[in-house]
Amino acid sequence: MTTHIGPACALPSESSSRPPNPDDQRTDTATSPSSDRDPPPLVLDRIGYEAADLAAIRQAIHAPDGLVLVVGPSGSGRRTALYSMLEQVDPVRRSIQTIESSVLRPVPGWLQLRVPDGRRRDGCRWERIFARSLRSGAHAILVEKVATPGMSQLVVRAAQAGHLVLSSMALSRACSAIAELQRLRVTTAQVIDALSLVIGQRLIGRLCPQCSTPDNREPVRRALAVALNTWLAGHAIQARRAAPAGCARCGHTGYRGRVLAYELIDLDMRARGLIASGVDIVELEPGLLAEGRSIWDRGLKQVADGTTSLDALQAAVRQPH
Asked: In angstroms, how far is the first alpha carbon of the chain from the final one?
């Protein structure tokens, strides 16, 4: 299916007599054939999403259209998450394309477009390439990020026109994506119609199992107190902290690897109704995220389990008041 979308930037049509844009000419294209040396796919189940949320993710990815967003700061694993989701799609049945500043990893069957950095960040260049992908008949498109009004209009209208679009935004919380799309001139009606799923996430230091020590400090007890009286009631507390000097196994840092803390908003009928009501983000967030489902709460549960420390959680996620 060929889709024509008119974004904020002037996009060259296939019949245009204008000379080609130099930025478009510098786009690198790679189609990855299958081989015995291909790296194994990223396994969605191993990233750290809970079973119910995995089901919601798979439902969104296997839908014929819609917009899926992963938000978080740099280093939060946004593209790794998006790749693991897109690898659930069969590239034989659905044409898959990615548009990135650098290809995260080659994937057999995908058309992967690399947009080299120019002397300045040119949002229109990304928009032209995205529009070209739509015209080429791509069914599923991963674009590295949404940061301009033009790109936000393109991804939303593409999702409305029958394409599956995956992207990311540099935001702190999942609910912020809704407000940011509106700031980028996407109407509330468009958000409700196009957006399928939003995940906000962080990667937090995983305590070294060899040298971490029990943590019964007052700040830890205080942070866990409210949760233990509500959504964490009856949960065994095994809080631990990093050893100040660490050990040889963790490079004397006290941490080995990282663990995921996240929140997920599934745009079901109830969520769409809340957004349509026009409430601001302060009221919207508790309506969309039940107790125990925010990034902080998920991280706090891992503090209670001894997987990470309160110190590491506080360094990565703002503590609610």
From this structure: 49
